[in-house]
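User: Hi! I'm working on a homework problem where we have to compare a predicted structure to a textbook description. Could you give me the structure for the chain below?
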Amino acid sequence: MILGVHVSAAGKIYQALDTAKGLGCDTMQIFARSPQSWRNGTHLKPEDIAEFKLRRKKYKINPVFIHISYLINLASPEPRLYNGSIQAYIEDIREADELGADFIVTHMGSHKETSEDAGIKRLVEALDKIIEKTKGSKVGILLENTSGSGSWLGYRFYHQQKILKGLKDKSRMGLCLDTAHAYLAGYDLSSKQGLEQMIDEIEEMVGLKMIKLIHLNDAAGELGCHYDRHDHIGRGHIGLAGMKRIINHPKLKNIPMILETPKSTEDSDKENLALVRKLSRK
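Assistant: Happy to help. Predicted structure tokens:
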């Protein structure tokens, strides 16, 4: 089992590796910069990047995932935000390359009540530009499914299917499967039948081999409510039995899993990680 958490990169970015190591993580996810702000000309210092690489090798943290800023919207109909998002994404991929990160994880954007097809078209065009401008990069791009709130794309896997079919170059593309988002979007992962139906849908639409990361989260909301709130493992509506089935499913268990569960106390990450490891052994 390849297991980790989303850890804070506040302070020096290489300190996130110390946190991951202290938690016994095999893998980790970070924000390379504040998720709620634009870069504004700021970049990581070369000495911090060098130290990040050194500690990662020492601690054997693999793979490393970077989550994109929440401000980026590659499906936006607003030209300024759309073009700014493309440029910011290119900068983030280049910095991820410098860090030696393996993947960037991205939400698929909001079409802002234009239409899903229009939003998907803009997203495909944006990704084509990004992939062309970062040609030669080894950083993979993972499309994360969403809970479907508002005008957000990605709550059904035919969205990912349309995007992948529309791209000129799919060689660096993959999927991130968020279990809480799937449940909140209407996939009943609390039941064996619901889990199998979702897996079958992904296989049919895009292929399970495209899943490079699982965000392993329980859901704080009701099935299909579209309200994006994560819960601690086993305490949400997916429940302990549902999470256990996901963790041990033969088609999913070898995919890296990252917890984005609430950090209610200083020990929350330790407790959730310990429970996942216990469930994986049962």
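For your comparison, note the following. Strands lie at 3-6, 27-30, 64-67, 103-107, 140-144, 173-178, 211-215, 218-219, 230-231, 257-259. DSSP finds nine helices and ten strands in the chain. Good luck with the assignment!
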